[in-house]
Design a protein that fits this description.
Layout (H helix, E strand, L loop, with lengths): L6 E2 L2 E2 H16 L3 E9 L3 E8 L4 E8 L2 H12 L4 E7 L6 H8 L3 E5 L15 H13 L11 H33 L12 H8 L9
Parallel strand pairs: 3-6, 6-7
Antiparallel strand pairs: 1-2, 3-4, 4-5
Protein name: Transposase IS110-like N-terminal domain-containing protein
Pfam family, one: DEDD_Tnp_IS110
GO biological process, one term: DNA transposition
């Protein structure tokens, strides 16, 4: 939210607003001592940590396995309070989110398209993304996504599978019709993929066995 440039008792709201937002976020994040940004990939996870003092550090990469994540939690948590993790929603799903919950750690999954970006910042690296996630999570600037439970995710998987099958079936039909058209076979009936069309397909013969 961008506040207008007004004066209140000699102070500009452009100066006051960031500090007010920071104070409100601090109240919402009370109890967390470190904010961990995870740039998650299929094989590796880049890790960065921001603390409440404003320091942001890059810790490096770990392998993307439950054992490595559990070890990471133990290393970061050693001698500190509660941790708050975050990572971008993507093809790796919610496995890491659920594992961190089982480890009694706070975790948020972030909407990638809504992550604030600096003007002109085009070069993306795992290190930079992890540092940005940790920093933005610490100040409450990330937009979160809704996390389905196991039953909801299973239903979503089934729906996606049905849509994928419909798409593949449509592609297969188009390829078959294109193949037949290249060899001069064109259906003269009114509608395709009816019983009459299927009987027409069964009667088509080719000279070469490869076809």
């Amino acid at each position: 939210m961008d506040l207008p440039h007004l004066k209140v008792r000699g102070l500009s709201l452009r100066w006051v607003a960031p500090r007010l937002r920071a104070a409100l976020r601090g109240a919402g994040h009370e109890g967390f001592s470190k904010y961990v940004g995870l740039d998650v990939h299929q094989e590796t996870i880049a890790v960065a940590v921001a603390d409440t003092a404003g320091e942001v550090r890059y810790l490096g990469e770990i392998v993307s396995t439950p054992e490595a994540i559990a070890k990471l939690v133990g290393q970061i948590k050693r001698g500190t309070g509660r941790l708050a993790f975050c990572y971008e929603a993507g093809p790796c799903g919610y496995t890491i989110f659920r594992q961190l919950q089982e480890l009694k750690q706070e975790c948020q999954v972030v909407a990638p398209s809504l992550i604030p970006k600096k003007p002109g910042e085009r070069v993306k690296t795992d290190r930079r993304d992890a540092l940005s996630l940790a920093r933005l999570h610490c100040v409450g600037e990330l937009s979160l996504v809704w996390i389905p439970d196991h039953a909801q995710e299973a239903l979503r998987d089934l729906t996606r599978a049905c849509e994928d099958i419909k798409h593949l079936r449509h592609q297969a039909k188009q390829r078959l019709l294109s193949f037949l058209s290249r060899h001069g076979h064109r259906y003269a009936g009114r509608s395709r993929w009816t019983q009459a069309h299927c009987r027409w397909l069964e009667r088509i013969k080719f000279a070469r066995p490869e076809q």
